[in-house]
Design brief:
Elements lengths: L10 H21 L5 H4 L9 H21 L8 H28 L3 H35 L1
Length: about 140
């Protein structure tokens, strides 16, 4: 099976690095009073003020990291991995729409809904895909004992 649309295996490490780098940057930005543009409502003066650029950079950093981790090849890419990847993607879309509909009904701020819609599908895909791979590896180790 050909996997034309997956990144090389080493891109996963770049993705994890950008995800990990996002966390202290976001905390540092909040500590220095650079809050998200989403918290302020309308943009103050221009579209590209410092707060908005900080928000764009950190959001792109996190999104690119999640994207690289989610769509990097495995060391051994076979039909079973493709099936697990497809099922995880399907469940990620289900969860994304559940979260999206619930947030549209329960949350009044549409900016946070956009941020949720960017990160939830990729994050849930990564979590479910890794969990199924972990369970599969664990069952193989149990069978060989």
């Amino acid at each position: 099976m050909k996997n034309h649309f997956l990144f090389p295996y080493w891109c996963r490490y770049i993705g994890w690095g950008s995800i990990i780098a996002h966390v202290p940057l976001a905390i540092l930005g909040k500590a220095h009073g650079i809050n998200s543009v989403l918290d302020h409502g309308p943009v103050n003066e221009t579209l590209f003020n410092g707060e908005h650029l900080f928000f764009i950079c950190t959001t792109l950093l996190m999104s690119a990291g999640l994207f690289l981790v989610a769509f990097a090849r495995e060391k051994i890419e076979d039909e079973q991995i493709w099936q697990i990847r497809l099922n995880s993607l399907r469940w990620a879309i289900y969860i994304n729409y559940i979260v999206l509909i619930a947030s549209l009904v329960l949350i009044n701020d549409t900016g946070h809904i956009l941020e949720l819609n960017l990160w939830v599908p990729l994050a849930f895909f990564i979590i479910r895909f890794r969990w199924v791979i972990f369970k599969l590896n664990h069952s193989i180790k149990e069978d060989t004992k």
